[in-house]
Write the structure tokens for this entry.
Amino acid sequence: MSQAITAPAATDAPAFSQQCVNLADNRLGSQIIAVSDDFFAKAERMLNHLPALFYPDKYDDNGKWMDGWESRRRRDAGHDWCIVKLGVAGKVKGLQLDTSFFTGNFAPAASVEACYCEQDTPPSNTQWHSILSASALSADNHHFFAVDTEQPISHLKINIFPDGGIARLRVFGHPIPQHSSEQSIDLVALKNGGRVIGYNDAHYGTPSNLLAPGKGVNMGDGWETRRRREPGNDWCIIALGQAGEVDKIEVATTHFKGNFPDKLSIQAANIQDPNDLSLISQSMFWQELLPAKSLSADNDHHFNELNSLGTITHMRVNIYPDGGISRLRLWGKSA
């Protein structure tokens, strides 16, 4: 089989795609509840957090293998649809309907309806409301749509007209807290709204992997920088999903053996009126929450002795001089 081609990133992604969490990320537990038809490609693939892949010569029993959701060609007046349960309920600010690699088989148009219910499957009498009216899609393209609603959303119904394929669905929003203020939570977890603001290098893996649930599945499921050949160190900046006081920090170097950082430190601050663009330069002068600590290969590290900084909203992770880590957890109570 030929080598996979990876879909390029969007060059015109709007601000909400950077300032929000993808609530439909499969790592958060998002799932397809029902689908009218996915003959050519299973709808579950549409929720993959990774960019779509294309194998030029890959086929299965039903035809060309596609990395996304694809229905068969309709021969009636209807349209296809699927219902998605978001991994975490939230307030949605924007959508991405990505048709990467779908050329002669993309869905020409799509609309999106939403609801909130606590059951996995919305009952038959559920009142759905539109968050995206029928909108044109094009072949092999990224499509972003701003959403104007303050209603909490747990499920989406994606309608495609009349049939065809979508490579990826991304639902950008702010998770609704599912915990009390007295409960200790991971303040930077994706499911709690944590997000990466900036980093100096991510040659082998993106820092957003640090905030994903569970353990890293392999060395690619983490943040790894190139080998540094000049003075200095690598870093990334993360906005906490919930402002709070940190009691404990966990750093995992799972799968990183000959390439883990020698040391790690964390700076932090309480930023009341954040501007993502200015935070990078500001972060160099933030106070230390965790002084530089040695790391070891393929291991879980627990740090309980932290400097008392009170409530924080942002953190800067410094690794010395380079290398890779798998997961990062900041345990504490939200403010």
Remarks:
- The longest strand covers residues 80-98.
- DSSP finds two helices and 24 strands in the chain.
- The two ends are 52 Å apart (CA to CA).
